[in-house]
Amino acid sequence: MTTILTGGRVIDPSSGRDEILDVAIEDGVVTELAPNIRRSDADSLNVEGCVVSPGFVDMHTHLREPGREDEETIASASAAAAAGGFTAVCAMPNTDPVADNAAIVEKVWALGREAGLVEVIPAGALSKGLRGEKMADIGEMARSVARVRLFTDDGHGVQDSLFVRRVMEYLLAFDGIYAEHCEDAALAAGGQMHEGDRSASLGLRGVPAEAEELMAARDIALAKLTGCPLHLLHISTLGTVELVRRAKADGIAVTAEATPHHFSLTDAYLESFDPNGKVNPPLRAEADRVAIVAGLKDGTIDAIATDHAPHAIEEKDQEFEFAPPGLVGLETALALGITNLVDTGELTLTRLIELMSTAPARLLGLGDQGRIGSGSAANVTVFDPSEGWVVEPAAFNSHGRNTPFAGARLNGKVRHTFFRGVQTVRDGAVTVGARV
Amino acid sequence: MIKHLLSMDQLSKEDITKILDTAASLQQVTSRPIKKLPTLRGRTVCNLFYEASTRTRISFELAAKRLSADVINFSADSKSSVAKGESFKDTAWTLEAMGVDAIIVRHGSSGAPLQLSKWVEASVINAGDGAHEHPTQALLDLFSMREHLKDLEGLHVGIVGDITHSRVARSGVKGLVTMGAEVTLVGPPTLVPPQAEAWGAKISYSLDDVIGDLDICYLLRVQQERQAEQLFPSLREYAANWGLDAKRVARMKPDALVMHPGPMNRGVEIAADVSELPRAIILGQVANGLAVRMSLLYLMLGGSEDEVPAI
Known about the structure:
The complex is a heterodimer of chains A (about 425) and B (about 300). Chain A is an alpha/beta fold and about 425 residues long. Chain A has 13 helices and 19 strands.
């Protein structure tokens, strides 16, 4: 079975390609890119006016399974990912039980295969139970069928510097990446939002930018000491962007990601006391948002990651102070990137695709993701960059409805997604396995 | 008039003046043998209190009853979450289903009254939310200041104590700045957020530096737990630096006032003898609270502004 995507604008950051071409997909592989491919036996899909891009890769997804299947399952998160144009997601280990051993990461990996809509790549915990005290079964997870490379205690910063050093050293044996949720627990304790003018006037306890920056600075120093590659998750402050910029200039192996909500919103949103805007790290000040955009632009920040974090409706529907942090992001990521980065003139479409696909695929070592060329695996996303739409949480494939973007009018809509040559999304609707 | 009172941000100088003027005429009712007006007959007001506060709840209850409203009281635990007991939203919908006309809400969580106002048709009055706002306290304080010093314009008010955790301070600064007063926030740097300058207030870490210049010294209650959080070394040291004692009172202007929202920690933020001086109008504040709350209920639920009650 051959499918020809006709008349689309093919953008492949890995090769620098940006031209109108037809794309032939056969047996899970892109077999040909050329003007006017004609085959009598092929299905043809007209994608004129659309961009044909490598499928997106999310380095930071909470799929909630095992443990909170009421909030999201690997199947429902996979459907949300496919609908958002993703062909791979990295599953964060803060499940219940925690993914701190081979049995859990293999289970997550297998459930991802079963759902079959995207590649589900389990991340492993750094420490047992995410407690930051005893090493998780790092080698066993790395050597398991899930082949874990990214290790993190996401949700918690690792407080003990000696423990961080030891884990970084140990990871060297397994080609692992140390990924940190930068948060000094004492400075951030009880914090509800970014510490600044707004937290002071709203009477909500703040999390200072320094809670993130202190840990980022420590980790950069320890990455230099140990030689372990360091990835900083969801960086949110001007100071952290500057630390990463400096570390890269110094030749330290550090990478960073930023989320769509941190480049789209500021703490001004919380004047509404809407718990859907409560997230960790918190929405920051405008100067921080501007610094994140600059970091995405100049390469300081390597990847856009969603930090997709579904929560049950009743958990978000309570007092701000009691609501858990987190918001869903898989189905709005592309449109937020186009609306707030490309349409504003900050980034080119090519750079946006690099941040959402090529760079995270390279960071995670995924050979068959992040590029589109003759002979590459057919992980392909087709989107219309100018189609406007209004965010309706009830229409999400994710079981999560918690988004601060409800009702927002955004540009950029995913039309079709192909995962290993199988069309998982057709005309914006998930095709395989139906909606879960 | 506004439908909900959530923050002092909502009130202009004219709004505040109208509320205080109406309170002044309603206050005369409370000195009559029969202290009741029929204005809110048939209306239902609910006191929804997630934090214990006897004085504010009683003040609102009495205010509503003096206007002939039916009053129901609902107390719950502020620490409750969906895991234990009924959620805040379900409680709101329950009250709504019973057809209450106004909900007076006190909650330990900042923003809870604003959230409530999105869930119900009833009018919502913020009776104190977390460290955010306490607008009726600000209004009764403005009323008390005006009663004694006539014009609020140009007054210098020092608010002394734990500004960081104080909803009284936040609403108070907004009301005072709106009315043209000058505000200085005084306390240890651990309890005065530097961002407060954006509210239009000045900041001082020394009560001795400002005491002689104040028309009103407004003291805030110091919670014992702030000491446990290492925000200052001891209550004794707090009292020595930021407490109002007779020595500091001696440096005050002759007609300057001492105010406190209560309940007082005598011997900490205010010396016992100071609390009993004529210039300490603390009990007057309580009495005025009733009139101001009657005024608000009257203006928000009752008649139009043209029909000030026939007294």
